[in-house]
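Fresh eyes needed here. Kindly weigh in on this sequence plus structure tokens:
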Amino acid sequence: MNKVANRLLTFFIGVPLMLILVTQDYASHLIMNIVIVAASIISTHELVKMLSKKVKLFPEWIYISASLILTISAYILVYFGVYVELIQWIFVLIILTLFSIEAFTQKEFSKSVEKLGFSLLVVFNGAYLFTFVSRFALIENSQYYLGLFFILVFMCDSAAWFFGILLGKSTRGYVKASPNKSLVGFIGGVLSSVASGIILMFIFPKIFNFSIWWMILLGFATGLAGIAGDLIESVLKRACDVKDSGNIIPGRGGMLDCTDSILIAAPIFYIIVYFIY
């Protein structure tokens, strides 16, 4: 019951705070980007701590530095309206730098494949995926689209949990990565994401002035990607034999436990909105 209460408390306090945060669009959402930088640093720390159980990685400060470079660069590029695709190039340069460090400094290479693969995962999941949230500032009426994105993700996550507990007991165990998750929960979550998008489309017709079929696609794809993000993190935690990535958020666990759905859904949402416009 305490876990349920903590989760509900986090939802009813955390979601409104997040929606208030995204409406503050001063200087291309400066406040939100400060939160993104902090979340990326914490997520990187949690990933390094988890994956270090499997192989010896580079010193943590190297990954934290990569996180800072990527997230701050993303904000600067968006703020000044510079070619935002430079973020991809920066990401590639960071990975090449890590690979080069391994080649020039190590004397024994039996664990190098795992070390470099895990390093790629840390930088990609702990930093690069966060940059897609920063890019939302490029969209016209960005505060509305940021609000839409977080509502789609949070409604899917919360509805999946609610329907899973209420109706999903007989449909659990189909996905081995997270056997407590149910098919009913997945379906309820995605449908809730779609329904939330359609409702917001009718509330703000001048903002979301595109075909309802685009909104259905956006809600479906974002919800499905959010569920995939949750399952992907479950795979990582099971592989590292940990229950939660951390314990800083009541009812959720660590920063990765809270942002797993956001990180995978953000590029999917951004790509679809990019094609809409």
About this structure: The chain is about 75% helix and 0% strand.
